[in-house]
Each structure stands twice: as structure tokens, then as C-alpha cells.
């Protein structure tokens, strides 16, 4: 199983994207991390905790600036056993493409390839 992680400066964007993906691909696990304590921003600590708590492989999407920087650092510091990869694709369109591919049986590598072909 492969999860999708959404990292956004906005809790509303992260949760809204998660809601969209869950409606379109019900069997795909989507994890949203947005904002910091009700405010706009990202937190390395929150992202690291999320990644360290994974129970399967994950493909990560982000919106802007420090979301990418904090996600990169959290992935770099990850010492777990699962594959965790950040992709450079629009957060909504890219994660939607990934969710659909995973929902029709695509594996981690096939899903990454699908994203790279489309974005």
C-alpha cells in the first residue's frame, strides 16, 4: 500500500485536497498536514512526526516555499523502513493523478512514473 501525503501552508487547502482525493479514490490513504496551530505556515516538527509515524510507503506533495524545505528535511532525516518520496507536481492535480493511479492498482513506481509523465 502507498499513502499520499499533502503538505500545505493552509490547513484548509490540505484538508480540502484530502477530501477531494478521498471522494474520488476511497481506498487510498491520504494524510493531510496543513498550517501551524490554526495559522498559515508549515512546521518541520509536525511533518517529521507524520513521516516517522508512517506504516507504509508514501508519495508526498507540497505547495510552496517552506513546505518543500521542511518536507525535504523530514525525508532526509527519516530512518524508517518505508519508501518516502517528494514529487514536484501541482498539489491538487498531482495528488489527484496519484490517487487515481493507486486506486486502479498502480504500485509506488508506476504511480511516480504517471506523475512524472503528466507534470
Automatic annotation (TrEMBL):
- The EC class name is transferase
Q: What is its EC number?
A: 2.7.1.121
What does the UniProt record say this protein does?
Answer: Component of the dihydroxyacetone kinase complex, which is responsible for the phosphoenolpyruvate (PEP)-dependent phosphorylation of dihydroxyacetone. DhaM serves as the phosphoryl donor. Is phosphorylated by phosphoenolpyruvate in an EI- and HPr-dependent reaction, and a phosphorelay system on histidine residues finally leads to phosphoryl transfer to DhaL and dihydroxyacetone.
Give the GO terms filed under biological process for this record.
Answer: glycerol catabolic process; phosphoenolpyruvate-dependent sugar phosphotransferase system
Specify the domain of life of the species encoding this protein.
Bacteria
Q: How does it assemble?
A: Homodimer. The dihydroxyacetone kinase complex is composed of a homodimer of DhaM, a homodimer of DhaK and the subunit DhaL.
Kindly list the GO CC terms recorded for this protein. Answer: membrane
Please tell me whether the keyword Kinase is annotated for this protein. Answer: yes
High-level lineage: Bacteria, Bacillati, Bacillota, Bacilli, Bacillales
Alphabetically sorted, this entry's keywords are: Kinase, Transferase
Under catalytic activity, the entry for this protein gives: dihydroxyacetone + phosphoenolpyruvate = dihydroxyacetone phosphate + pyruvate
Protein name per Swiss-Prot or TrEMBL: phosphoenolpyruvate--glycerone phosphotransferase
Single annotated GO MF? phosphoenolpyruvate-glycerone phosphotransferase activity
Q: Give every PTS EIIA type-4 domain span.
A: 1-119
Under NCBIfam families, the record lists: dha_pts (TIGR02364)
